[in-house]
Amino acid sequence: MNAKQILIxxxxxxxxxxxxxxxxxxxxxxxxxxxxxxxxxxxxxxGYPLSNEKDVAFFREIRKHDLGHTKxxxxxxxxxxxMKAEDDPGMQALVAAQTPIITLVGKTWDYHxxxxxxxxxxxxxxxxxxxxxxxxxxxxxxxxxEHFFDGFTANPKYAIETLRSAASAxxxxxxxxxxxxxxxxxxIAEVTDHAKQALSDYDVxxxxxxxxxxxxxxxxxxxxxxxxxxQVQGTxxxxxxxxxxxxxxxxxxxxxxxxxxxxxxxxxxxxxxTELSRFVYETANLQWRNGQPFVGQxxxxxxxxxxxxxxxxxxxxYEHIDPSLVGNERRILVSELSGRSN
Length: 342
Ligand SMILES: [Zn+2]
Prior knowledge:
Elements: E1 4-5, E2 7-10, H1 26-38, E3 43-47, H2 53-62, E4 71-77, H3 89-96, E5 101-107, H4 110-117, H5 121-136, E6 140-146, H6 148-154, H7 156-168, E7 173-178, H8 185-198, E8 205-210, H9 217-226, E9 231-234, H10 248-258, E10 262-263, H11 273-283, E11 301-302, H12 305-313, E12 331-332
Parallel strand pairs: 1-10, 2-3, 2-9, 3-4, 4-5, 5-6, 6-7, 7-8, 8-9, 11-12
This protein binds zinc ion.
The site of zinc ion has 5 residues, from loops.
């Protein structure tokens, strides 16, 4: 049986840049984008073209590079209230970015529509539909359903109505966001499954976008994949606002090496993951996390004498994978805990 390909959507350059202490220059962004394309990431979200000049420049410069199969995405909000989509500067900036994909974020939680946008529930649905319809004339549209899981819990009928509005306007992806990062894996699976069923009359695919506030962003992403999502959004090393996003390093490694029946990076090897992780830390001027799963310096470091003795005989005694599969290496540490084997 062929493995099911799960597409990887990287938002290091947009959501990742919201992380405390992270600031990418234009050149940093271009370097990261090129590196992500080299390892076979499917989608790269470059930024928010209305928000700053640097992001506008990024979209202008990145067009000059051949990124192979990787598609660049511009990110932006639905049109403003009481304005036509085509007259909205945000919509115009998205089109002017000239990307093959536009990721449109909209409110799916009734509370956010009325309290944050201060529009009626009907107008919010219209804002989503009209924005998606306008953008779909220029690019493929991914609809990012902000606060989808909280919105669904508060008002399931309305949350689904917002998705239907985007889908009937021509958006081809429904990306379900756990924006506040508070949802548990079983709930992610249940709600994703429900959304899929509720939109079964549309030709759309599902994505998942998780934040890590409950330290479950990776587990939640995998749960959504099991429920039928075929795109996972996240950042390299999980960098991002508050507690960060789903760490795509762990998402990719778990999907490709642990879970049965899934593939990522369309044939590219995972062996560049360790190098990619360190490249992003260095570019972001952040410290490596030694204990980071799969790619951290300590992920395959062995210190206790008994472990070292066993690992020298058979590596799988204390290693869940062969470290070289993700480009990492085993380290034997010398300490007062060492036995005769180290
Ligand atoms: Zn996010």
